[in-house]
TrEMBL record:
Family: Belongs to the arsA ATPase family.
NCBIfam families, A to Z: GET3_arsA_TRC40
Alphabetical list of CDD domains matching this protein: ArsA
Family matches, as SUPFAM superfamilies: P-loop containing nucleoside triphosphate hydrolases
Lineage: superkingdom: Bacteria
InterPro entries given in the database record: AAA+_ATPase (IPR003593), ArsA/GET3_ATPase-like (IPR025723), ATPase_ArsA/GET3 (IPR016300), P-loop_NTPase (IPR027417)
Any Pfam family: ArsA_ATPase
Official protein name in the record: Arsenic transporter ATPase
UniProt organism field: Dictyobacter vulcani
Length: 318
């Protein structure tokens, strides 16, 4: 099996995720290099410890960076704290207005509340940044190298978190408008109202995109070891509950079949876990990648891996 179908569909948004250390970044980068043969591709990473710079062998910044030797491929490492800071600078006055007009708190108290660290909000803004790039339609395909599983699931649940956050602010805004109507007998649409409408639209777009099987695919990356397989099963079940399309599993670092006793025993050990995944998820496309002889860094090695990922090979008996 292979990932060839990814280049033959209408997919626009491809996410790579899984347990830490299984090769998500490498698989995302190799896929991006391969898809850039025919499409203009933007590769993001939302991992707090990004490694695209190591993968490509060049500095990747917080703005789209042209990948050397690969026409049509651009990459960027999202700095979530920077994105959140820019968001607060852009919309801070509107949020403060909602808090000040919709609560009985003093101005200094609402200022303090505004500057509190809200768990997950930086990741919300990372997702919003990705959506902003997609809205501009400057690229054909957007690939996301996500953080390890726990962070990824929180990221994917962010539309719901952000929706609750907007509902809270909306309730405060509704109370303010009711008071204005009561005393002034008039109703005004202000900057804060427009901000809430814009954010509500963003949440709806993210939610719709994540559940669109024609445009979105979540590729699960794993290795054939007990803990990784267990985490993979939990991740796929969670994706299913959230109605996020996931039809691909990459099993990385598989030992080649060999006559030596050590290699033979290691492969037998891995075969059991490979078989478990195939039995648990028979509808998934499983792509098996043999352990590489060297680290996959640099364009040449990424191209070689990309060719392996997109080349149909007969499945081995396990």
């Amino acid at each position: 099996m292979s990932l060839r179908h990814l280049s033959q569909t209408s997919l626009q948004f491809i996410l790579f995720g899984g347990k830490g250390g299984v090769g998500k970044t490498t698989m995302a980068a190799a896929t991006a290099v391969e898809l850039a043969r025919e499409h203009k591709v933007l590769l993001f990473t939302t991992d707090p410890a990004p490694s695209l710079t190591d993968s490509f062998g060049q500095t990747i910044g917080s703005e789209p960076t042209a990948v050397e030797q690969v026409p049509n491929l651009f990459a960027m490492e999202i700095d979530a704290s920077k994105v959140l800071k820019e968001f607060k600078e852009k919309y801070g006055s509107e949020i403060l207005e909602i808090l000040q007009q919709g609560t009985y708190l003093a101005d200094e108290e609402t200022e303090e509340l505004f500057h509190l660290e809200i768990p997950g909000l930086d990741e919300v803004m990372s997702f919003k940044l990705i959506m902003d790039f997609m809205e501009n339609k400057n690229y054909d395909i957007y690939i996301v190298d996500t953080a390890p599983t726990g962070h990824t699931l929180r990221l994917l649940m962010l539309p719901e978190l952000l929706d609750n956050w907007i509902k809270f602010l909306g309730t405060l805004r509704w109370k303010y408008h009711k008071m204005v109507q009561h005393f002034a007998r008039t109703e005004r649409v202000e900057g804060a109202d427009k901000f809430l409408v814009e954010m509500k639209k963003t949440v709806k777009k993210v939610h719709t995109l994540l559940q669109n099987a024609q445009k979105t695919e979540f590729v699960v990356v794993t290795i054939a070891e007990k803990m990784a397989v267990s985490e993979t099963q939990d991740l796929i079940h969670s994706l299913s509950k959230m109605h996020i399309p996931s039809r691909d599993i990459i099993i990385n670092n598989i030992f080649p079949r060999d006559e030596s006793d050590f290699m033979h025993q290691r492969r037998l050990f891995q075969d059991k876990h490979i078989q478990t995944l195939k039995e648990k998820f028979p509808q998934h496309n499983v792509t098996e990648i043999i352990l590489q002889a060297t680290e996959v860094q640099g364009i040449d090695r990424l191209r070689t891996l990309g060719t392996q990922l997109f080349t149909e090979t007969p499945e081995e008996d396990t």
